[in-house]
Amino acid sequence: MKTSHSINQENPIGMIGASPAFLEHVRLLSKISASKASIVIFGETGSGKEMAARAIHHLGNNGNIPFVSMNCGTISEEKLANYLFDKPKNAALFLDEIEALSTKGQISLLRYLQDQQSPDLPKSETIRIIAATSADLLKLVEAGTFRPDLLFRLQTFSVEIPPLRERHGDAELLAKHFIKQYSAKYDKPILSLHPDTLRYLSRHNWPGNIRELANFIHREFLIADGPTLRAGLPANQMNRRKGEDRRAGESYTGHDFNEAKAKAIENFEKSFLSRLLSGTHGNVTLAAKKAGKERRALGKLIKKHGIDKRKYADSPQQNT
Ligand SMILES: Nc1ncnc2c1ncn2[C@@H]1O[C@H](COP(=O)(O)OP(=O)(O)OP(=O)(O)O)[C@@H](O)[C@H]1O
């Protein structure tokens, strides 16, 4: 019989996977869950970092203490400092995109981690820090944007979630899992996977990892005609390509100066951001540094143009 601290390797609180790479990761998760020490979870976008953080939290304390999630790219320095220092609490704090933490935020977190070393601090008053990133923090330390002392304090443990393309056979397991979920959600029969789809699942590179796979299955599930899910190139990729082709061929033919200027600026911003993000594999902090802009401002610009930075995670390195 399993105890509450044991881990079901195929499904530790909903985490699906049976590849050796995934199971190794699961073993490590279960080992470190019992500790209160801080952790950094590395992994590509959509690979399951937040889910792993929740698994660590859940396995370590049965979910009895709160799990609070903050994105370092959008959280204000004040909010983070208030959360850490306002009043003592027992919680797990998930800090996503830790590489995006501002200089002041880094100092607050470092101070918090140093204070936590105090032997006088009751165990019931500790916040376990679980940080996640798709960036190479050592490179950011070298580049001078991330404090080395913070990295070393944070990284009592580190876990690297393998990208889906390295998890042999897991895409199929996950696809079946998502089909079951969508069939329950839409009250439709479960679909089987066509051999073409199976081939596609194992050959596709999955730069957006499990999030990309879930979206792909979701869409194909909804448009499937028969009892089989048959798909090749995800339509979102096709739509994106069509959209990009259309935009590339687009030229403004009106005569209004302001409209023409606005259009030219929009096109410039889009292509500039696209090149910039390709060169940093979608890392906004690094992109902001390269472009000489505030990270927050660059993030706003990326949002304004509806650009999905995740699609650049797998792009070849370019000079921008
Ligand atoms: N092993 C898994 N089994 C089932 N679902 C998973 C698994 N890993 C991730 N997912 C699902 O994939 C999606 C992306 O996962 P998650 O948000 O944890 O990724 P992430 O690495 O934190 O993403 P980001 O880098 O964008 O913050 C979520 O919907 C999550 O539920």
Automatic annotation (TrEMBL):
A Pfam family per the record: AAA_lid_14
Write one Gene Ontology MF term.
ATP binding
Tell me the ranges covered by the Sigma-54 factor interaction domain, including all copies.
15-222
Which keywords label this protein? ATP-binding, DNA-binding, Nucleotide-binding, Transcription, Transcription regulation
Report the superkingdom from the record.
Bacteria
InterPro entries found in the cross-reference section: AAA+_ATPase (IPR003593), AAA_lid_NorR (IPR058031), Homeodomain-like_sf (IPR009057), P-loop_NTPase (IPR027417), Sigma_54_int (IPR002078), Sigma_54_int_dom_CS (IPR025944)
- Which GO BP terms apply? regulation of DNA-templated transcription
Q: Which Gene3D superfamilies match?
A: 1.10.8.60, Homeodomain-like, P-loop containing nucleotide triphosphate hydrolases
Q: By what name is this protein known?
A: DNA-binding NtrC family response regulator
